[in-house]
Amino acid sequence: MTNPFFLCTSARNFTSEMATVATSIHSFTSTFRSLYSPPTAIFPTSIFQLRLQPSSPILRSIVSIKCRVDGANTSHFTALGKNVRSFGIVSALGKISETEMVPVPEETEGNLPDGSGIYGIYDSSGELQFIGITRNIAASVASHRKKVPDLCFSVKVGLMDEPTPDRTVLTDAWKSWMQEHLETTGKVPPGNESGNNTWMRPQKKPDLRLTRGRHVKLSLPLEDLIDQLVKEKKIVTFIKGSRSSPQCGFSQRVVGILESQGVDFECVNILDEEHNFGLRETLKTYSNWPTFPQIFLNGELLGGCDILCAMEEKGELGSLLEK
């Protein structure tokens, strides 16, 4: 079998151009799939990582291909990427026992991915406490750490290849990790036991609707309804999609950040043409802000996703939201 990593000798000296990788990606994918199940070690290298930074619009993100050899006779492969289906590479969620364990970041979200997936949280003794399912891994882990810091020491993450995967796909992945743990230990993690509400988030608030229906006559102009809403509620976010299922990465990021802060906030789906008809254009005029999502705090426009992210990174967001 040809070594699929023939393009590099180590992670440190790999400098191949994307064009070279593109011509070899098909054969690499075939080899990757054949090796992944069951895993077979053929590399003497212990740990190395291959990163591709494509300039082609077909690949609009970095593809990371990580090979981790866990011993003399086993290895584990994971491919992570976005918009790379044309090359046939998709993320593969491995078993929980084969997934790398990393420390839970001390910062609000640290370096954990903010995409959809499943995760397992372990205490300081290495005991699995909870297996979760989420649309934002970083936000969920940060929320757990804030609520039960003594039980959040390390985490295993299974990241989905799609930004907004189908709920059934997420649920099946969660079930596979639960089943594996149950078969190994004979019991479910403590946090997943019936009646244990330590780890589970409360039911998410429903999204707000500005009207009773598209064809129902408004009692007030839409702009007045917007003004009334943002002044009555402390934090209001106008996003693409719903709170539980954002329809763009920026909206998902905003929801995740606010949830990780543990604050109460309202969501309005600007894509709901039945109950929020005309909201997108009216809101642009009202706020004098051309893009979405938009976050309002105490009746004033705070900004969009980039501003919220910047404030969080500087440590300014928490104190501002508490005012």
Task: Write structural notes for this entry.
Helix 4 crosses helix 6 (about 280-285) and helix 5 (about 250-260) packs parallel to helix 7. The strands form three sheets. Strands 4-7-5-6 form a four-stranded antiparallel beta sheet, sandwiched between helices. It has a four-stranded mixed beta sheet with strand order 9-8-10-11, with helices on both faces. Strands 1-2-3 form a three-stranded antiparallel beta sheet, with helices on one face. The protein is about 30% helix and about 15% strand. It has helices at about 20-35, 135-145, 165-185, 220-230, 250-260, 280-285, 305-315, 315-320, and strands at about 45-50, 65-70, 75-80, 100-105, 115-120, 130-135, 155-160, 235-240, 265-270, 295, 300-305. It has about 325 residues and is α+β, with helices and mostly antiparallel strands.
Brief sketch in words of this structure:
By secondary structure, the chain is an alpha+beta fold. It has helices at 18-36, 137-147, 167-185, 222-232, 249-260, 279-287, 305-313, 317-322; strands at 47-52, 63-68, 76-80, 101-103, 117-122, 128-134, 154-159, 235-239, 266-269, 294-297, 300-303.
Q: What is the mean predicted local confidence, pLDDT?
A: 75
Number of helices: 8
CATH homologous superfamily label of the domain at 222-322? Glutaredoxin
Question: Quaternary status of these chains?
Answer: single chain
> Mind summarizing the main beta sheet?
4 strands, antiparallel
Top CATH class of the domain at 222-322: Alpha Beta
Q: How widely separated are the two ends?
A: 62 Å
Q: How much helix is in the residues?
A: 25-40%
Please list the strands of the largest sheet in the order they lie side by side. Answer: 4-7-5-6
CATH second-level architecture of the domain at 222-322:
3-Layer(aba) Sandwich
**Total E-strand runs:** 11
Alpha-carbon Rg, integer: 23 Å
CATH topology of the domain at 222-322: the name is Glutaredoxin
Detail the poorly predicted runs.
1-92
Structural class: alpha+beta
Domain Glutaredoxin: 238-301
Region (Disordered): 184-205
Protein name: Monothiol glutaredoxin-S12, chloroplastic
Keywords: Iron, Iron-sulfur, Metal-binding
